[in-house]
Amino acid sequence: MMRNIVLFVFLMVASLAFAQNDRDYVRSGNRLYRAKKFDKAEVEYRKAISVNAENPQAVYNLGCSMMMQQKDSLAINQFERASQLETNKLRRAKSNHNIGVILQNHKMYDKAIDAYKKALRDNPNDDETRYNLALCQKLLKNQPKNNDNNKDNQDKDKNKDKDNKDNKDKNQDKDKNDDKKDQQNQPPKEQMSKDNAEQLLNAAMQNEKETQQRLQKAMQQPKKNRSQKNW
Questions:
Q1: pLDDT by residue (tens digit) across 56-68?
Q2: What pTM, to 2 d.p., does this model score?
């Protein structure tokens, strides 16, 4: 009987320590967070969540430590989780406010606006959230649309390609015209060769005629007696 009582008391003490353990981890994490040791604070908050996954304060503080380490996507996940767990409107508004800040830093103004609106529904008196909301609305209005920019760039590329093609065609036509002009300006080589051949043939025939005339004339004259000598 005593053994059972001791065992029962031991289990009650262990259960009580287990229930308080997550809050101890949160306090430890808060001390490290204030000392700007955000990575070590993250470890303590994770320990608190491992003990009690439904602790909204531990989840929210984990998101803050991740946010300070620029683990933005992971931080948003924790803030969304904390917003679901938190029953206090003011603390829930802080989670949505921090989500809006992260999205605003990444110039995702439309989603940041939604987060700020959620925060204001829980805490309408938060002037900082209201200011950020108005700023994001103004930035979103002045933000250039990526689709229009991409379309303009595509049109520019198409026009550039068309201009290059037109210039190429013009250059090819110019080369063809230049080649045609060169061919027209060049003397007809085959015709000149034929004319030269006729000229040479006529000259040869004339020379041959003159030669025959000289031979006939020489044959008609009397030959001199080369055997006679002068005494």
A1: 999 999 999 999 9
A2: 0.58
